[in-house]
Specification:
Elements: E1 3-7, H1 15-28, E2 32-37, H2 43-48, H3 57-62, H4 66-72, E3 73-75, E4 84-88, H5 110-114, E5 122-126, H6 133-140, E6 144-149, H7 153-172, E7 179-184, H8 192-205, H9 218-225, H10 236-256
Parallel strand pairs: 1-5, 1-6, 2-4, 2-5, 6-7
Antiparallel strand pairs: 3-4
This protein binds adenosine-5'-diphosphate and magnesium ion.
């Protein structure tokens, strides 16, 4: 069960949308996916989660181990099939665990819970837009990381900082963290600035940038607003986005499988 952190040191770049897009693609392919929402804002949870969960991601930190994971996992609210998506919902109080610490001084707790996630084909961790202890915990529990960015100046900065944190966690806490890649999202093909930043990302990250970039399409927002997978939305834009996520899922599974 490969575990993948989706992160960036920037909000609004599409981390949650990429998690949902990949989970939807995995569902279409008949895979079993677990989404763990570590963002105290809980955007993924508001779409996938039950209204009154009895346990949350906070339990994975408060009492790390198989019992906490078992209690916190629920079937997702999407109409599923052929595969399945389960979710561990967020909790606003996760913020308690996001205080900054030296990476070396973090004693990973999430790892102790997620090591019991056998049975899933893929575990996706939706990270907060910070690079504090929650992101470090996520990377410490992961086999791979996907950095999501927009082709903007601030987006590139957020991606570079996330890559730096990946390197530090790989060196100190988690040597099995083997794969990092960059997904460029919300690209407007008509914007010269986006073209310039896309070239900058290619220069900074080289082959780590996985193609294709994800274009800006209203279908992403429409599907999220309707609380359904983009794969099930049924517009031309959603089909285009669904095809792109299928490619990204295939490439990810090949790299980490
Ligand atoms: N490719 C896209 N096209 C259009 N809107 C997008 C796209 N990706 C993300 N969005 C929208 O941008 C906003 C921020 O995305 P989100 O996934 O919540 O970012 P993050 O998790 O990084 O904060 C959301 O309203 C989302 O629907
Ligand atoms: Mg998010």
């Amino acid at each position: 069960m490969p575990i993948v952190s989706v992160l960036s040191h920037k909000g609004g770049v599409g981390k949650t949308s990429v998690v949902l897009g990949l989970a939807g693609a995995a569902m279409q392919q008949g895979l079993a996916t677990l989404v763990v929402d570590l963002d105290p804002q809980g955007n993924a949870s508001s779409i996938l989660g039950p209204e009154n969960p009895t346990a949350t991601a906070l339990d994975l930190f408060n009492r790390p181990g198989s019992r906490a994971l078992h209690d916190a996992v629920t079937a997702c609210a999407w109409e599923s099939g052929p595969g399945e998506v389960d979710v561990v919902v967020s909790d606003p109080m996760l913020i308690k665990f996001d205080a900054w610490k030296e990476i070396n001084s973090v004693t990973p707790r999430l790892t102790k819970s997620l090591e019991h996630s056998a049975g899933y084909d893929l575990v996706l961790i939706d990270c907060p837009p910070s690079l504090g202890t929650l992101a470090v915990e996520a990377l410490a529990a992961s086999d791979a990381a996907l950095i999501v960015t927009e082709p903007t100046y601030f987006g590139v900065q957020g991606a570079l900082r996330a890559a730096d944190t990946f390197d530090q966690v790989k060196r100190s806490l988690n040597r099995k963290l083997k794969d990092v890649s960059v997904i460029v999202n919300r690209v407007k093909s008509t914007a010269d600035e986006h073209d310039y930043r896309a070239k900058e990302l290619a220069r900074e990250f080289g082959k780590l940038v996985v193609k294709p970039a994800i274009p800006e399409r209203i279908a992403v927002q429409q599907a999220e607003g309707a609380a359904i997978a983009v794969q099930k939305y049924g517009s031309a834009g959603s089909r285009e986005i669904a095809n792109i996520f299928e490619t990204h899922l295939d490439k990810l599974m090949r790299r980490i499988g």
